Amino acid sequence: MTGAGFLRSVPVLLLLALPGLAGSLQAPFPKDHRTLRRTVTYGEMVAFLERAAKPGFITVSEEGQSTQGRKLLLVRLNRGGAKARFRVFFYAQQHGDEVAGKDALLTLVRDLAERPDLLPEDVDLYLMPMLNPDGAEAHQRVNGAGADLNRDHLLLAQPETRTLHRVARRIRPHLAVDGHEFGRDGESYTAKGWEAWPIITMDAANHPLIPPYLKTSGLAAVASAAPLQEKAGHPYARYSVGGPPPDEEIRPSTPEVDDGRNGMGTLGALSFIIEAGVRHRAADPQADLGERVDGYRILYRHLLGDRAWRDRVRALSERARREPLPPFIATNVFWANLGGQTRSLPVREVATGRTVEVPTANAMTDLVVKGSVPTPRAYAIEPAAAARFIPVLEAQGLRWETLAAPRRAPGERVRLLRLEAPYDDLYQRYKDRQIVQRQSLSELDLPAGTLIVPLDQDLARRAIQVLEPCLLYGLYGYPGFRDLAVPGADLPVSRLF
Q1: CB–CB of 181/292 below 8 Å?
Q2: Could you tell me which residue ranges the Peptidase M14 domain spans (predicted)?
Q3: Which residues lie across from 183 on neighbouring strands?
Q4: Is the pLDDT at 14 greater than 70, yes or no?
Q5: Rounded distance, CA 158 to CA 176, Å?
Q6: Which one, 5, 6, 63, 320, has the greatest CB density within 10 A?
């Protein structure tokens, strides 16, 4: 059963669908969330959550601070105590100018504060409504240090992403959702007299190291949400990126690890991204904020599902955390259209408001593996680079050993041929591709001070994503590591067998 089973069950979290039932809790938004026209500010959020806290049910904790010293708040709602075994983690506003997910979560807190009995006793619900308060206050995508947080899940160089992952490792959620927004009216669509059709979208984690049963269950939940959104009158689709049809490539979001959705997925959660569509060029981009929030709430309710769905997700998530590593690691993957299938994609005609179906063969929904390497048993980081890597290992919660004496071990070094900086227009590939060559398997001399990161640890998949030197995209395209990428020289991380 997918989350659609919720519709046939007891009315779990019914308040998420019925506006206007909240009572005495003073909130910085209207009782009917569908009438929202203004987003909640950081100060309003902090004051509201202080009022919403209820001993024994709603706790609000400061888990860290932003670059500019603002609070990173975690809200926990639990009325079942030890019976609440299904752990859920909803977080939003990694990008400061993407607001609907945050507003939807705050309306959820308000509704449940008024009716605690509507939260199932088996649900342990955690919320981080505003991960980027500095960006929110400045109404900008990046944080106070100018960093895009949703591209910082590999290095965890920013205090906001370090806090997020520290909380996630403590919670170990079975279900996680990352909240964002996208522009419906980008220049390429506007030039055709169109805008993107959906106002609410969702996709599941897709990194190759995530077990296939999690990815399959995630995509089933994405598909089964469609009738719920249709009933509410919200255009809905699987989240995709790219330009307008028929000429531009349209594909699901990146299969790389450096975002929240795939980052939580490799911790064993059934992980999703929700993106609501904003008309940035409109006179008032928040005129339809209430509709976007309503679309969010429908998806939150859908993913919480009924008891059978939650039990199934919990079992799959816990199975994923016990799953052995695969024998091979995919190092080069990309989206393709196997067989050249033609699909019709809807767009909205701005002048008439009509929905137009546009046929295209450029809808790429098949994930193809172009390269792979055998899975090692550990990674060795040379002593000269140890100081660079230790902060990343610590931020990721990884376990390692520092050699006190030299050691010999079978392994292979990896030579960097080149770091390709330009964006690849032909294959629609990101910049900073690492082109490498594996050296022959041999006995490696590992000097004292070498860091050994074993893959027999709980977070082995994260260790692979951070350290594997054969990945097409990895650490060496990032500040602080780029100077370690010397063409023709061995990379500082070796593969041990």
Answers
A1: yes
A2: 38-268
A3: 278
A4: no
A5: 20
A6: 6
Q: What is the residue type of 485?
A: A
Check if CATH label 3.40.50.300 holds for domain 3-328: no
Pick from 481, 174, 470, 422: nearest CA to 318: 174
d(CA 105, CA 56): 20
CA distances from 33 to 52, 117, 287, 411 (A): 17, 20, 13, 58
Domain with CATH 3.40.630.10 in the chain: 3-328
Q: Tokens 């004496």 sit at which residue?
A: 405
| AA letter at 259 | D
Side-chain half-sphere exposure of 149, counting CA atoms within 13 A: 36
Tell me if 109 sits within 8 A of 22, measured CB to CB.
Answer: no
Identify the helix (H) or strand (E) that includes residue 428. none
pTM, full prediction: 0.94
pLDDT for the residue 430: 83
DSSP string, 163-223: HHHHHHHHH--SEEEEEEEEESS-HHHHTTTEEES-SEEEEE---TTS-HHHHHHHHHHHH
Q: What is the dihedral of CA 148, 152, 153, 159, to 10 degrees?
A: -100
Q: Which residues lie closer than 8 Å to 220 by C-beta, 6 or more apart? A: 2
Provide long-range contacts, Cβ within 8 A and 24+ apart, for 212-215.
213/316, 213/319, 213/320, 214/265, 214/268, 214/270, 214/316, 214/317, 214/320
- Alpha-carbon distance values, 359 to 79, 217, 344, 345, 355 (Å): 50, 28, 4, 6, 13
- Tens of pLDDT along 384-400? 999 999 999 999 999 99
Q: What would the pLDDT profile of 279-309 be if each residue is shown by its tens digit?
A: 999 999 999 999 999 999 999 999 999 999 9
Coil, helix or strand at residue 42: helix
> What are the structure tokens assigned to 111, written together?
């509704």
Burial class of residue 157 in the structure, from the number of CB atoms within 10 Å of its CB (0-12 exposed, 13-18 middle, 19+ buried): middle
Nearest of 97, 130, 111 to residue 30 by alpha carbon = 111
Task: Please name every residue paired with 204 in a beta bridge, in sequence order, or none if there are none.
Answer: 272
